[in-house]
């Protein structure tokens, strides 16, 4: 299991944070994701064999968010 | 006894079919002839002691038909070639007619020239013996065998014109230019009708070709060293080993040596839920391998294989299919002798008749009258009557995804009193769905679905997929399952969020020592309806149950209702078991059920109904339905499933829409009404002209006037009016009107969310309108039917992190 923290700068509200969490957790290989609105951060615990930061970034972009390492 | 099956080119109407039937049937040694116009095939049973294959082929060639290559692609190419030849003939004939028209207009407007008759003479000869030569071959061959058809009728007219014209070159009582002109005109018309009939046919088979997978069937043979090679099925031997990958059609009958897989036998047996198969089990060619790779030993080939048995049943059914004589040919049967009769009467009247009354004869007038009768006897619009109605009806049908392959299909539609429907894939969607969920008191439904979906999400089994889809549609995001272990086809064990989840058949759960409570009325209720029940346990205790079933298509009830309103008797015919069949029949309101019908018996059941003097339509999609589709008066293949079904059908309903069936009936019936009107119009002008012509007072120019009038009338009639009922039209309009769904989306909190929803949905779906209410957390989507529906919208929303509720 790998842990990764990155920023989602365009979180606008609590809802955005919740949705981003959902999006990340739907990904195959993501064990746990925690997105907080206050500091616009995402903490993800994932299996690096199954997914990657790039995949997460793509999934978030589909929903109109960006991700920065 | 031997059988010969030939593909024939050049058949234009059911009269051709009859001519062939007659010409071959009268030969010694021929036991049975069956000509299928729709399939352009002839099946001859003969005794090779009395007649040989080349003789039979020669008869067909003599009659002016061609014998096509049985290879599917070649046959289509030849058909295209024929159409091209025909078009070229038409162009030449058209040019000649134009020249004749110019001369005649000059003449009518008072410009007389000595060369007019001679020029039209040349044009008449050129048309009749140039592009019209093929008609002479056909006419002569049928006349020689005592068959009277439209080709003879044309030649009577054309030659009468020619003779009348030649007479006119010497005797001014005969209008030479007009007589020659008529020959040119009617020959061209005949070529035009032939071309349009050909065009309709070619267009229909072109559409059919597009639906067919014309690749030769191949299999992956594994040799002793374990190497795989793709070979054609014909090259396989019994005992060979073939490898079949997931998603592939199973090419042969065989026994599984290695591997396990879910095998979808629905197109073979009608069973809706795939069977789980492993080492030692037998599999049948034509079914679909779904989940695993299999190594199979070939056990049957050629005549013994399932697919070939089906092919034999299809041929048998083809020979036993009740014939339809096209209306036009029924009329011609009386009309042609009628014209000949009037011709004889007119010459007798002016010779013998006149002599009896006045003691004198008027032979020239008698000849004039006779020639006139023949010239007027050719109903030009006749050849167009059916093709035009078919072009209109066929085009309308095609817009609705209905493909009519033959004129017979149109004609018979209105007489159909019994509609036999296949179950799986026809009335139903053909794949299992979750229809009911029961959770135990301690379990929260959300958790239950989430865990079930998670446990099943990596399984390819259709039942598992149904559970996953259901969970996802309920908006559950699925956690990852760890350490799972599955007993294929029975159940699955997985660790999810620290809990052990067991999901599978009731039997599997009991084996895993999960207690299923004694009060199982929920289970037995569902099983009585033919549903499949699976159960889930968490932490060793039962947490809930799923009931799954193949569900009815959305338009099944409406379709069945409409067919019943039209007083058609409905029968459900399926290979599936009685219980499942009854459940589906009850839901949709069909009383008569025939369940557990083996593939080879389906056609027999249709014959049984036909023997009670009923006209039967069969609707089906599978390989097992093919013989029944052929046997039925109208076979209707639904969906774009199997080649064999499509090739056997007269009408093809493309796509999954069942209501197309009702539309096909309406369009078929109304098009036929048009054909009847057209024929009446076509015959009426000539029907009046022929008796008048016996007087010898009618000039041949009237033949041209009748021609123009009747063709115009037929054209106008064909494209005027409505072919589909008001109810169906209304339904269509309703469908086109917008549908709206409102979702509650609790986690839509800000403008950014709204923007995302708008952007995603408009990008993904065409023609939708979105309204959002941030305060109420509501999203309303308005859309016209098409690829947008509840589940696709939900899916899109879930994908971008929302949790839509209705």
TrEMBL record, chain A:
Matches recorded under PROSITE patterns: HMA_2
Coiled coil feature spans: none
HMA domain boundaries: 2-68
InterPro entries tied to this protein: HMA_dom, HMA_dom_sf
One Pfam family per UniProt: HMA
Protein name per UniProt: Heavy-metal-associated domain-containing protein
Automatic annotation (TrEMBL), chain B:
Compartments where found: Cell membrane; Endomembrane system
Record's keyword terms, sorted: ATP-binding, Cell membrane, Copper, Copper transport, Ion transport, Magnesium, Membrane, Metal-binding, Nucleotide-binding, Repeat, Translocase, Transmembrane, Transmembrane helix, Transport
Pfam families the record matches: E1-E2_ATPase, HMA, Hydrolase
Statement: the UniProt record of this protein carries the keyword Translocase: yes
Transmembrane domains' residue ranges: 90-109, 115-135, 156-173, 179-197, 334-357, 369-391, 679-699, 705-725
Secretion signal span: none
Domain HMA intervals: 2-68, 739-805
Highest taxon above the source species: Bacteria
Membrane topology summary: Multi-pass membrane protein
PANTHER family for the chain: ATP7, ISOFORM B (PTHR43520), P-TYPE CU(+) TRANSPORTER (PTHR43520:SF8)
UniProt record similarity statement: Belongs to the cation transport ATPase (P-type) (TC 3.A.3) family. Type IB subfamily.
Name of protein: Heavy metal translocating P-type ATPase
Taxonomic source organism: Fodinibius salsisoli
Lineage, broadest ranks: Bacteria, Pseudomonadati, Balneolota, Balneolia, Balneolales
């Amino acid at each position: 299991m790998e842990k990764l923290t990155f920023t989602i700068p365009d979180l606008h509200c609590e809802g955005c944070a919740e949705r981003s969490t959902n999006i990340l957790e739907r990904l195959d290989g993501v064990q746990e994701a925690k997105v907080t609105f206050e500091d616009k951060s995402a903490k993800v615990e994932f299996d690096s064999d199954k997914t990657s930061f790039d995949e997460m970034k793509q999934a978030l972009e589909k929903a109109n968010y960006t991700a920065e390492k | 006894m031997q059988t010969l099956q030939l593909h024939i080119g050049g058949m234009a109407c059911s009269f051709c079919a009859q001519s062939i039937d007659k010409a071959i049937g009268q030969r010694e040694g021929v036991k049975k002839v069956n000509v299928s116009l729709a399939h352009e095939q002839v099946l001859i049973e003969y005794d090779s002691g009395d007649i040989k294959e080349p003789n039979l082929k020669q008869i067909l060639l003599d009659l002016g038909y061609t014998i096509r290559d049985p290879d599917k692609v070649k046959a289509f190419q030849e058909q295209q070639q024929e159409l091209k030849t025909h078009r070229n003939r038409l162009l030449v004939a058209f040019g000649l007619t134009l020249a004749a028209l110019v001369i005649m207009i000059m003449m009518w407007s008072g410009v007389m020239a000595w060369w007019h008759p001679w020029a039209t003479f040349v044009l008449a000869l050129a048309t009749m013996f140039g592009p019209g030569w093929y008609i002479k071959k056909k006419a002569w061959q049928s006349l020689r065998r005592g068959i009277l058809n439209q080709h003879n009728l044309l030649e009577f007219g054309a030659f009468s014109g020619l003779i009348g014209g030649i007479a006119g070159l010497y005797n001014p009582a005969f209008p030479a230019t007009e007589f020659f002109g008529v020959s040119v005109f009617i020959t061209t018309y005949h070529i035009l009708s032939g071309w349009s009939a050909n065009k309709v046919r070619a267009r229909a088979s072109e559409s059919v070709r597009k639906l067919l997978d014309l690749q030769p069937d191949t299999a992956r043979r594994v040799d002793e060293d374990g190497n795989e090679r793709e070979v054609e099925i014909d090259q396989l031997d019994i005992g060979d080993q073939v490898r079949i990958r997931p998603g592939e059609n199973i090419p042969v009958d065989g026994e599984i040596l290695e591997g396990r897989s879910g095998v979808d036998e629905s197109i073979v047996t009608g069973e809706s839920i795939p069977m789980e198969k492993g080492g030692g089990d037998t599999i049948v060619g034509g079914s679909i391998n779904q989940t695993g790779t299999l190594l199979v030993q070939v056990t049957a080939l050629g005549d013994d294989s399932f697919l070939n048995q089906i092919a034999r049943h299809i041929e048998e059914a083809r020979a036993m299919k009740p014939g339809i004589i096209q209306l036009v040919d029924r009329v011609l049967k009386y009309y042609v002798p009628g014209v000949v009769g009037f011709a004889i009467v007119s010459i007798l009247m002016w010779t013998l008749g006149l002599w009896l009354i006045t003691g004198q004869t008027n032979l020239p007038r008698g000849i004039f009258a006779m020639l006139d009768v023949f010239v007027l006897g050719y109903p030009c619009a006749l050849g167009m009557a059916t093709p035009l109605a078919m072009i209109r009806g066929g085009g309308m049908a095609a817009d609705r995804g209905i493909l009519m392959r033959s004129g017979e299909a149109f004609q018979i539609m209105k007489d159909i009193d019994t509609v036999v429907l296949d179950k799986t894939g026809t009335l139903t969607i053909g794949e299992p769905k979750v229809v009911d969920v029961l959770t135990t008191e301690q379990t929260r439904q959300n958790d239950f679905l989430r865990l079930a979906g998670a446990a099943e999400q990596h399984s390819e089994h259709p039942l598992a997929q149904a559970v996953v889809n259901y969970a996802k549609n309920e908006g559950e995001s699925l956690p990852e399952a760890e350490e799972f272990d599955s007993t294929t086809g029975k159940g699955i064990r997985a660790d999810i969020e620290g809990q052990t989840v067991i999901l599978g058949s009731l039997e599997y759960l009991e084996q895993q020592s999960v207690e299923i409570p004694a009060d199982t009325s929920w289970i037995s209720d569902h099983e009585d309806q033919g549903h499949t029940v699976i159960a889930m346990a968490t932490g060793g205790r039962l947490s809930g149950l799923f009931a799954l079933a193949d569900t009815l298509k959305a338009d099944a009830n409406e379709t069945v209702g409409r067919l019943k309103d039209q007083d058609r008797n409905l029968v459900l015919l399926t290979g599936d078991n009685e219980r499942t069949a009854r459940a589906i029949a009850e839901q949709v309101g069909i009383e008569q059920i025939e369940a557990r019908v083996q593939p080879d018996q389906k056609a027999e059941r249709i014959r049984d109904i036909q023997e009670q003097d009923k006209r039967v339509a069969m609707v089906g999609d599978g390989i097992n339905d093919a013989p029944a589709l052929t046997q039925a008066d109208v076979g209707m293949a639904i969906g774009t499933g199997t080649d064999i079904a499509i090739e056997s059908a007269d009408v093809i309903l493309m796509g999954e829409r069942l209501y197309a069936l009702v539309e096909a009936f309406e369009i078929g019936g109304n098009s036929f009404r048009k054909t009847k009107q057209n024929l009446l119009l076509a015959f009426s002008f000539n029907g009046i002209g022929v008796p008048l012509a016996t007087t010898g007072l009618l000039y041949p120019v009237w033949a041209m006037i009748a021609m123009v009038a009747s063709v115009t009338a037929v054209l106008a009639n064909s494209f005027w009016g409505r072919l589909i009922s008001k109810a169906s039209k209304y339904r269509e309009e309703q469908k086109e009107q917008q549908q709206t769904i409102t979702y509650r989306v609790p986690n839509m909190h800000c403008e950014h969310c709204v923007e995302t929803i708008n952007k995603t949905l408009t990008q993904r779906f065409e023609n939708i309108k979105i309204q959002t209410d941030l305060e109420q957390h509501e999203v309303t989507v308005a859309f016209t039917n098409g690829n947008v529906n509840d589940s696709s919208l939900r899916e899109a929303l879930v994908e971008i992190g929302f949790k839509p509720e209705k």
